Amino acid sequence: MDIIKETAKRIKPVDRKLIKQAEEHLANLTKPVKSLGRLEDFAARIAAITNRIEKPVLTNKVIITMAADHGIASQGVSAYPKEVTPQMVYNFVNKGAAINVLARHAGVRVLVVDMGVDKDLSELAAQGKIIDKKIAYGTKDFSTGPAMTREQAVAAVTAGMELAENEIKNGAHIIGTGDMGIGNTTPASAIIAAFSGIAIPELTGRGTGIDDKTLEKKVRMIQTGLLLNHPNSKDPVDVLAKVGGFEIGGIAGVILACAANSIPVAVDGFISTAGALIAAELSPFAVEYMFASHKSQEKGHRYMLERLGLVPVLDMEMRLGEGTGAALAMTMLDASVKIYNEMATFKSAGVSEKTN
Amino acid sequence: MDIIKETAKRIKPVDRKLIKQAEEHLANLTKPVKSLGRLEDFAARIAAITNRIEKPVLTNKVIITMAADHGIASQGVSAYPKEVTPQMVYNFVNKGAAINVLARHAGVRVLVVDMGVDKDLSELAAQGKIIDKKIAYGTKDFSTGPAMTREQAVAAVTAGMELAENEIKNGAHIIGTGDMGIGNTTPASAIIAAFSGIAIPELTGRGTGIDDKTLEKKVRMIQTGLLLNHPNSKDPVDVLAKVGGFEIGGIAGVILACAANSIPVAVDGFISTAGALIAAELSPFAVEYMFASHKSQEKGHRYMLERLGLVPVLDMEMRLGEGTGAALAMTMLDASVKIYNEMATFKSAGVSEKTN
What we know:
Chain A is α/β, with parallel strands linked by helices. The first copy, chain A, has helices spanning about 1-10, 15-25, 35-50, 85-95, 100-105, 120-125, 150-170, 185-195, 200-205, 210-230, 235-245, 245-260, 270-280, 300-310, 325-340, 345-350, and strands spanning about 60-70, 110-115, 130, 175-180, 265, 290.
């Protein structure tokens, strides 16, 4: 826990003076002031976060896709059997999944991490194809007790921090988050419910595509889990332990490490934003380093984004996870930095400025 | 006019059966059905438009950026002097403008066209740096008479069609539209006003960033122009001639040619969508080939999109034109086609399918 607290304490607000300087640079480029809208906001924030006002860089990009299983899946809250979690890990390794395609499109590396898949994946780890940070073979069913111990929750967040720190040490300019875990919209909904107190049916969606009956059960399971475990909403690690998931803890750790090391982080969709909620509770300043990649179709996502005060980069009506939204959002962030670095100024191009 | 009518007549609705086949292909990929949302819609529509259900292709991409001047600019309706139109053409040629940066980012060629800049640019055309389709040295001030003759309007649309046909013949898989013309939000607002009858202040925005007084004048000029010239809203070429612009006519021509030749067209922002309105009036089926690239900050844009029934790909709060929105949107369309072509199927990856 000490390392989490220390990392959270290192996170400082982004320097407003630097943002202002970046905006001044953008105002000199050959376009009406602010006419590139949010693209300019992205670039200014990235330049300020990374303290590179002269020339922000976003070439070394990585998405950390964390996989884990969930005890609650045994209650039948998902449309897919839980074998799909390891099957999809193999799909990631074989480059056949959506995240592989979109990361390649965006010029982003993908790091696949076993945070707690309910299958022995040590062979893939031995071959260097995935990273082994397995906390356990899946969480426990939170409708009958806590999902994990406090020690496991701390270990999950710490593992995420370590992974991100390592990537940053090796030159990453931005990190995106991603997840894979059959059943994991259930803990994600439980987490926003625990923090916000909003009615559970409002926060609970159809995940991979469940029917009405399964949705009803999912809501009931979340209700049961919260009543039984009564997570302390003032203690984000307790919330993670009682109703969370290993990959969600890992994502929170990745986000904290990015913020502590002054690099931007592209938070994917619903599951990743649950991790972002935990990170933000540990350090409110962490939010200033986040880019909300997209608006998920999953019902509760907008409440998460509202709580964080983030406006999503994209709205593609997606609900896949894996980091797919983060990959797409990175193409926009990349574009924004290129605008910042590559456009001519009014002076250099000999273009007349505004008259009225 | 005959060639315009003939081209419009060649435009057929996109085959619903092909869209269905494309959706079936997408349903077999390793992700919950429809979980990539609009990305899947884009891919299915592109596959159907181009009749390449096996393997849609979007590698050869071009944005046609059309520049022209506007007589109405002499009334002081813009924040910038009209010399900026040719100055920006030089900026395009020297690769210093936003469209150059974003097209490079998106892997898109840019074709710069002089549709009617109020300056002799024949030297640039002779050097092969721009294409000369100049109709005249700017339109006439539509607050004192028609912007152009009917012959000029026909010539503008025809020029756009020829340019696009030529690009398609040379292998373009998708074309984006773009514009440059100081003062051109004024004719664009006038066009949507003429077609829709919506109150002019609702449709008239701040363009490059005009103040309240200038905005008031702009509204008055549009009012005057419509009353004086009374364009026939049933005759889109008449609307273009009375209150339009040469680049807007050219854009309409580009869109018609794309639709007639069964390739998708990425319509940029406010000015380009004014061109799209004219194209849609000439052939309602043309809309099925359009992708609305982004939601412009320019006030009247949403009325244009509503009229066309299009939902923009992106909302970056941009209002620059040049084709910048089209370039960014193409990165999303590109991503969608890669998903279609490159993902594993449930069968090939050995991933279990949905159970409930």
